């Protein structure tokens, strides 16, 4: 299905209804019986699951990093000072502007093929895309550099696929439960809880990345102004065995930043 989010490409997603624009039509198809299940890129799924629906499984995560793609430049650092760079992520935009104040960062939306076409036709010098999407589409050869989360934190949920169905479809839930990947589910739960603490509506630049290993979850996150002049970062780790504990870690990290005054960076619609 092609949704409104796929069709309206001349405006930022936050200006035309946010992440929900991608899923409303898919949920309508499930509600009226035309579909049993929807598969989403978790980074594009609303922070709050709509009433009557459930995320039945989170599949094993692909590469969560952002990828630098350019035809003329090998790395992000190799770009000329006033290079034009496209990204669809406000969090990425803020981090780029913080690091490269003279860079011309432009909104870039649409499917991967269309965005790569903008690059190939010379409208931009480079583009930042989710590495997972490029890899899943067989475009790994377009990646010039993978951006370390220490330098550019990705969007919450990036690289993970979420399976959504009606909450009362116990048969569908049972059928996909085996696809749930514990480490990915816990890491993304913490990332999304952090975003939810700021009532994320797609207007506030933020980013989060968590890693779960041997019972310990390490979460790094940031909130910023779009111009990159104010960026607040924090990190926390805790022993985590279930999604409730992962949620708690995300909220605690958000509380750390709110205590430092991060509330002034929240952008309301």
Condensed summary:
The protein has 269 residues and is α+β, with helices and mostly antiparallel strands. Helices cover 30% and strands 23% of the residues.
Please characterize this protein's 3D structure.
The chain is an alpha+beta fold. It has two domains: 4-62 and 156-265, Porphobilinogen deaminase, C-terminal domain (Double Stranded RNA Binding Domain, 2-Layer Sandwich), CATH 3.30.160.40; 66-147, D-Maltodextrin-Binding Protein, domain 2 (3-Layer(aba) Sandwich). 30% of the residues lie in helices and 23% in strands. It has eight helices and eleven strands. The chain has helices spanning 4-7, 20-31, 90-99, 112-120, 131-136, 170-176, 182-197, 243-259; strands at 38-41, 53-58, 66-69, 84-87, 104-107, 126-130, 145-147, 161-166, 206-213, 216-224, 231-239. The strands form three sheets. It has a five-stranded mixed beta sheet with strand order 5-4-6-3-7, sandwiched between helices. Strand 10 (216-224) and strand 11 form a beta hairpin. Helix 7 packs parallel to helix 8 (243-259). The longest helix has 17 residues, at 243-259. 39% of the residues are buried.
């Amino acid at each position: 299905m092609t949704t409104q989010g796929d069709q309206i490409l001349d405006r930022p997603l936050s200006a035309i209804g946010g992440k929900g624009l991608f899923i409303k039509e898919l949920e309508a198809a499930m509600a009226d019986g035309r579909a049993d299940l929807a598969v989403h890129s978790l980074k594009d799924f609303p922070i709050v699951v709509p009433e009557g629906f459930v995320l039945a499984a989170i599949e094993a995560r692909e590469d969560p990093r952002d990828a630098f793609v350019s035809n003329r430049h090998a790395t992000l650092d190799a770009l000329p000072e006033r290079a034009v760079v496209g990204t669809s992520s406000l969090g990425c935009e803020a981090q780029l502007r913080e690091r490269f104040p003279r860079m011309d960062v432009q909104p870039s939306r649409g499917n991967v093929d269309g965005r790569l076409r903008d690059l190939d036709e010379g409208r931009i010098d480079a583009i930042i895309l989710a590495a997972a999407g490029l890899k899943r589409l067989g475009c790994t050869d377009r990646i010039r550099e993978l951006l370390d989360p220490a330098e550019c934190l990705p969007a919450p949920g990036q690289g993970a696929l979420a399976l959504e169905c009606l909450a009362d479809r116990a048969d569908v839930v049972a059928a996909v439960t085996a696809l749930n990947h514990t480490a990915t589910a816990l890491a993304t739960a913490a990332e999304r809880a952090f975003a939810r603490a700021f009532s994320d509506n797609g207007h506030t630049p933020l980013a989060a990345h968590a890693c779960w290993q041997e019972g310990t979850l390490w979460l790094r996150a940031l909130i910023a102004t779009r111009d990159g002049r104010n960026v607040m970062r924090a990190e926390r780790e805790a022993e985590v065995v279930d999604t409730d504990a992962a949620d708690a870690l995300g909220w605690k990290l958000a509380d750390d930043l709110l205590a430092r005054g991060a509330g002034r960076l929240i952008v309301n619609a």
